[in-house]
């Protein structure tokens, strides 16, 4: 049986369509394994150049550059230049928190359900 009071209250408290679309865009950015590996590398390694990110993630420099352009366009990473080198860093505290929460969540999931753990070689 539908609870009209609860339905009305929840509808009134839901974010608007624009906010939901923006949130979906953020999760879409984080949903790509290559971009996620880059962000995790920047989370752990701090400022890194394209060649170091490519070596760390086993991605081509072209793929890394393409992903970084997209992440920069969404203001998730920023770049600083020193001479001819460009160094990228994770520049969004909210995305940093999402990554930390995601890592915590997967750690708890593996601890509670080790049978579902994915080995490092399965991830690559």
From TrEMBL:
Superkingdom as given in the UniProt entry: Bacteria
Give this protein's Gene Ontology molecular function annotations: DNA binding; DNA-binding transcription factor activity
The residue ranges of the HTH arsR-type domain are: 15-110
Record has Transcription as a keyword: yes
Pfam families, per database record = HTH_5 (PF01022)
Give the record's keywords alphabetically: DNA-binding, Transcription, Transcription regulation
Determine if Magnesium is one of this entry's keywords. Answer: no
**Gene3D superfamilies documented for this protein:** Winged helix-like DNA-binding domain superfamily/Winged helix DNA-binding domain
Protein name listed in UniProt: Transcriptional regulator
Originating species: Cryobacterium algoritolerans
């Amino acid at each position: 049986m539908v609870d009209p009071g609860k339905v009305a209250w929840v509808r009134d408290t839901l974010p608007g369509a624009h906010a939901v679309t923006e949130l979906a865009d953020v999760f879409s950015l984080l949903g790509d394994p290559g971009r996620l590996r880059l962000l995790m590398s920047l989370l752990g390694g701090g400022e890194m150049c394209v060649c170091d990110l490519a070596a760390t993630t086993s991605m081509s420099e072209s793929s890394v550059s393409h992903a970084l352009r997209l992440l920069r366009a969404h203001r998730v990473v920023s770049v600083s230049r020193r001479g001819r080198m460009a160094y990228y860093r994770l520049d969004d505290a909210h995305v940093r928190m999402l990554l930390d929460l995601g890592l915590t969540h997967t750690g708890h999931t593996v601890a509670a359900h080790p049978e579902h753990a994915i080995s490092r070689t399965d991830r690559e």
